[in-house]
Amino acid sequence: MLSKPISDPPVCTTDLLALQDTLEIIGGKWTLLIIHYLLTRQNEVNTFTKIQNDIPGLSAKVLTNELKILEINKIITRKELHTKPVSVRYDITSYGNKIQQVISMLVSWGQDHRTMLFDKKKQSSFT
After folding, report:
1. Which domains does the chain possess?
2. By 3-state DSSP, what share of the chain in percent is helix, strand and coil, each rounded to 5?
3. pLDDT tier for residue 1 given thresholds of 50, 70 and 90
4. Are 63 and 48 in contact (CB under 8 A)?
C-alpha cells in the first residue's frame, strides 16, 4: 500500500510522483498480466488455481503476493466460494476497469515493437 512521504522531493513534479505511485502498484513483472487476464475473463469464475494454470511460469507464491497487493489497492475483489474444498474467486473492480485503456495501449505498443524488432521488411518504416 502506498504511503504519503513526509515531504515530496523538491525535484519531483506531480506527474513524476503519480507515475511513481502507478509503477509501485502495477510495475511488477506479473501484475499487468494478472490484471489483463482478469479483464479479459470478466464473465468467468477466476479462481486462484485457474489463474495460476493459465499464466505460464507464474508461481503460487508470486500470485498470492500479487493478488494481495491488487486487493489492497482496490483493483480486484476476493470472494470465498462455498465449495469443498473452499476456493476463492477474483474479479476486477470498477476502479480496476479504469486501467483497461492503459493496458490496451501497452499491448498495441508491444505489438508494434515486436514488429519493428522481428519483421525485417517493416524495420525500415520505424526508423
Report:
1. 15-126 (1.10.10.10)
2. 55, 10, 35
3. low
4. yes
DSSP reduced 3-state for 8: coil
The DSSP string of 20-65 is HHHHHHH-STTHHHHHHHHHTTTTS--BHHHHHHHSTT--HHHHHH
pLDDT digits (tens, 9 = 90+) for 11-27: 668 888 888 889 989 99
Distances (CA, A) of 107 to 7, 36, 47, 65, 100: 35, 10, 24, 24, 10
Residue 31 has pLDDT above 70, yes or no: yes
Question: For the chain, how long is the longest CA-to-CA vector?
Answer: 58
**What is the DSSP-derived secondary structure letter of residue 82?**
-
pLDDT digit string (tens) for 96-126? 999 999 999 999 999 999 999 988 766 555 5
Are the C-beta atoms of 76 and 91 separated by less than 8 Å? yes
Q: Sign of the CA dihedral 40, 28, 59, 2?
A: negative
